[in-house]
Amino acid sequence: MSNTTGQLFRVTTFGESHGPAIGCVIDGCPPGIAIAEGDFAHDLARRATGRSRHTSARREADAVEILSGVYDGVTTGTPIALLVRNTDARSKDYAAITRQFRPGHADYSYWQKYGIRDPRGGGRASARETTMRVTAAVIARKWLRERHGVEVRGYLSRLGEHAPTGHDWAAVEANPFFWPAAGDVPALEAYMDALRKSGDSVGAEVTVVADGVPPGWGEPVYGKLDAELAAAMMSINAVKGVEIGAGFAAVTQKGSEHRDVMTPQGFRSNHAGGVLGGISTGQQIVVRTAFKPTSSLRLPVQGLDVDGNVVDVITTGRHDPCVGIRATPICEAMLALVLIDQALRHRAQCGDVGAVSPRVPGGG
Amino acid sequence: MSNTTGQLFRVTTFGESHGPAIGCVIDGCPPGIAIAEGDFAHDLARRATGRSRHTSARREADAVEILSGVYDGVTTGTPIALLVRNTDARSKDYAAITRQFRPGHADYSYWQKYGIRDPRGGGRASARETTMRVTAAVIARKWLRERHGVEVRGYLSRLGEHAPTGHDWAAVEANPFFWPAAGDVPALEAYMDALRKSGDSVGAEVTVVADGVPPGWGEPVYGKLDAELAAAMMSINAVKGVEIGAGFAAVTQKGSEHRDVMTPQGFRSNHAGGVLGGISTGQQIVVRTAFKPTSSLRLPVQGLDVDGNVVDVITTGRHDPCVGIRATPICEAMLALVLIDQALRHRAQCGDVGAVSPRVPGGG
Amino acid sequence: MSNTTGQLFRVTTFGESHGPAIGCVIDGCPPGIAIAEGDFAHDLARRATGRSRHTSARREADAVEILSGVYDGVTTGTPIALLVRNTDARSKDYAAITRQFRPGHADYSYWQKYGIRDPRGGGRASARETTMRVTAAVIARKWLRERHGVEVRGYLSRLGEHAPTGHDWAAVEANPFFWPAAGDVPALEAYMDALRKSGDSVGAEVTVVADGVPPGWGEPVYGKLDAELAAAMMSINAVKGVEIGAGFAAVTQKGSEHRDVMTPQGFRSNHAGGVLGGISTGQQIVVRTAFKPTSSLRLPVQGLDVDGNVVDVITTGRHDPCVGIRATPICEAMLALVLIDQALRHRAQCGDVGAVSPRVPGGG
Amino acid sequence: MSNTTGQLFRVTTFGESHGPAIGCVIDGCPPGIAIAEGDFAHDLARRATGRSRHTSARREADAVEILSGVYDGVTTGTPIALLVRNTDARSKDYAAITRQFRPGHADYSYWQKYGIRDPRGGGRASARETTMRVTAAVIARKWLRERHGVEVRGYLSRLGEHAPTGHDWAAVEANPFFWPAAGDVPALEAYMDALRKSGDSVGAEVTVVADGVPPGWGEPVYGKLDAELAAAMMSINAVKGVEIGAGFAAVTQKGSEHRDVMTPQGFRSNHAGGVLGGISTGQQIVVRTAFKPTSSLRLPVQGLDVDGNVVDVITTGRHDPCVGIRATPICEAMLALVLIDQALRHRAQCGDVGAVSPRVPGGG
Lengths: 364, 364, 364, 364
Hints:
Four copies of one chain form a homotetramer. Chain A is of the alpha+beta class. Chain A has one domain (4-350): Chorismate synthase AroC (Chorismate synthase, AroC fold, 4-Layer Sandwich). Helix content of chain A is 24%, strand content 21%. Chain A has eight helices and 18 strands. The first copy, chain A, has a five-stranded antiparallel sheet with strand order 1-2-3-7-4, covered by helices on one side. In chain A, helix 3 packs across helix 8 and helix 6 packs antiparallel against helix 8. Chain A is globular. Chain A starts with a strand and ends in a 14-residue tail after the last helix. Chains A and B meet through strand 1, helix 2, helix 6, strand 11 and helix 7 of A and strand 1, helix 2, helix 6, strand 11 and helix 7 of B. Strand 11 (239-244) of chain C pairs antiparallel with strand 11 (239-244) of chain D.
């Protein structure tokens, strides 16, 4: 079930970068959620390429067609199929690399696994697939918000060596980087312009948070909330690391420093990132994800072809110099998809009732 | 299915820290693997407490009884049930905290989720559960070694601020820390002695690797090898972060630096950590895991009780000052469990045949 | 995962009878199977309505569009999405029953479950969904045939009180009933003409068989081959009973009569229907399925509306007087889908090697 | 996951007939159910052999040990492991058939699948495994009763050619056959005595019903309530057929006869067996299951050995002349396990709220 995520809110995606379409089927969606085809546009635009010079020039319409599961404007509980036609695929860009393995790409591993691969635009391994994650998450976020008051947000917390000099949620949507400090943006733009000109790429880090998650979501011991978040983030193209709360900084922390003290007024800190024992505590859920630099560079590199010959590989397709720039909406989507799934699983086992007392406010 | 890991090599664990027993059921194990009850002792001893002064004083026999699935000394393909009786549980140590929530512990989140919890020794949230992960992995490792020549190893790569000053696999098993640099051990011992005396704890980082993994294991896009490794590691108690290959260091790398060049003689580097597009490349699989400092301290801390009152919490049970010290065998176990599961899934879809040519040696 | 069937060859279907489209996603398909859009037409025509006066007059083009997972004419191992647009839906026929519950229909149970239903043409509960089962099974049957020499066939073994007076496979495809005795067909036609004129409907029984299944497919104890066949058949609209081999006749059999004697030349009988202990024996797999008479009748009947009022229900849409008539291809499809899934699961656990000796020919 | 049944109330069983123990792990059980080790005795005694001369003479203590998941007398939401030691296994009875394949048995199919089998007492293929189904269902039945008022009951509805001459629930528990007509019992006893003396065996049919199931349980289209009931029953040893409601009798019914008319006072009939479109209607759930005659007979029969030689097979172990006699509690157990699983799945997707109006009383 490698193309399905979730156990109860099950999203199955399909489609190749340069195939006729991409899409998904959502199975297990609660009935009664109001959904229209226009509801997807905002989130898809945030993820889309072609909106600034800092992302790939590919410009897709990303028009979502609802094929099933919605009647009279609301979800019916039956599977929701969502379809997006590919409209701006330029497969000829890939003719040269049809028989080559690009270093750092999935070309070689797909070839080794399946004995065949669709080389056009990266095929199934393209980040185009994440379009459907964002699409499916629109419905998940709506349910989380309306039923539980849960809000999922995110921002770019590292762009190469750059770190934000401040944090202002209002700034995040006002620049093409999802950067939380408006004053840093000119420097980032200059940095990206230089990088693009050089033909090289760079890594990035995205932070996503969820506010309003009630205590009790998450299933120990193998379905822990943080375990599923780690898998969800790592399943995104180009991700090499995931942290919850203090993350790797916990390695050098003392226990007396790390443990978050609870008071009747709330937690005093949030090193846990909102998860203890794999179950939400009511605090903010905090997840950080590391993105590698894309390997599709104009800079030539030595590679191999399918006959084992050494060749010079030059990638001429349209690519992002930093895939992390567009990754914030994708990480948000995965966080939302994990949360709705855990919410439904919690409801299955423990019922619809709220958390028991005493309930500590999720501060800290 | 929160207490089951794996899709085809399915391990279901059960048991509380101070209950009568812990155990597991392995379903889907290939038939014909030679297994005897004595085969588990070595790996369990590596994970066990009570073997040095640097871990908890609890000393369990960890005797494994094979209840089913093995006949005439070999696995039969039917479910293998393995049972370990708890023999050194001291539940009275926990009387004081039966109605208290320890900061940084799963006490509060279990209570909120289920409305009830077994407080004795942490109940299900205890690291005692990981005994069965190591036990089940003994069989997985045997199959991986015998059938595919895959070897899984690991070491402690950070102990608080300490980093190894060298790397020698031979050193790892010769000290109680799984530390790869023999010369550093006296300093670590002094550090841990001081820490234990202070009543505090500290975090750590474990690195595990797998050699000999053929290209082709891993299922895009949600069952990627690295995604499942991330979930597997994050499902271990106290883990706050997971990295594959370059991990978070990839954030500041350039693409020209990160991409691993392939030559007919092998890969020139391994920033990918052996995984591209979620599929193994034939290189060494490299996973790093961050462990937080345990929150069970003798140092008093403010907490809440089940009635919402503020109380002073002092943990008097036997605890590890650094849970990461014993975590190397557990991380190895999870790596092995993910690998065997992916191996079987690959065989299901793509058959038993080896990888196709050209095949790049897994160097780098 | 209620709209997904199979564990490793996973087929997820979606779509309502009168929605814009129906479709499916096949995940886990082995790579390298040659598939073209024209390959589906033959099997879909066998299932389709509107081909004889004995089935519903609805006439769909049933044109299959391959959206993903096939490159250069062969499957790539990535998810295969197949789409069929609905072209002949007449939703206005259903206006009258939008707020009524038809007796014997899923109207009431869907309403109770979800609090909403799509009444057009039965919505998701329509047999239209089975189009995608037949479509997906085209690929399964191809793999089963090419790789294992397995052939799946079926016929109508009861039409109301009528039973075949002989058995000739050649006859089955030569009449609109899938009836194995050509001489009986005129009587069946007269019977169906009278039934249709009366406005009533009748039940039927379908028998499907698989030849060439090697011994060893099936997973005890809850994934038994026969258990999954039972679920697969019972998941088809209007099915009320499933038998394997002797089926209910085994109730009055003696053990000395039922047990199938093995000889080096083959089995002497096949009361088992090709399955012992949930695992195939190498004999012919035999499954019989009982279809109820459709409840969509022109004959008025008392029903209830959504406000609880008693109303007269008259179904004016286009319906089959005997849904069993078109059910043979659907039962074949489900048999094929179960077999390929079990074949892949067997390969995962036990490898690609053939059965061990002694191997009894599958006669009897 | 062949040894696990259920998606959310997951029961994994293990153990061979003559191994040291059998057991199960229940994962996903709602917290807060009061359970003690003595709660299992009543249902296990109903299933046990050795209680009358009409069943096998094997007499097991069937003492259930709770290993985990229960604290302070109630379930905690963590996995519940239940263990039953085998105490009356006589493996020497099976020495003769260690290298033989008994006709009608799983000996041959297990051998072909796994290349190895545990021949003692049928190994994993023994009906001994069903002990754990009954054990697990004790908890399921308790939850169904206490939370939803659902009662599961059953009886033997055919014993070879014999059919009950009346129906009295009070009679069922008062005879060793679960027979619903007390007056028939002497004739059945004579019949069974003669059968046992002859060394032969006979088939049987069991009917189980559930009262009080609310409308709305069941997940179309592949997780239909009736589809999962069919799989559950067919997964029991020796089952060859399953019917819901009218079952195979629907083949000869007219639609005007089959469809169950709804009135504000209730349904007028129950040909549907309580399920429409795969979802419960609120009527009584009715399932009938056909059991084949056991193939373990004292009457010699020709068979094969592992070297392919023709041999005379005589089964000398202790066996039931009619396995159906003890099957009523097992069928009840499977019905209960399917119901609790569907109840939790319904709660996950649609919430805890009751069914919507209008609600038809479940009469008929």
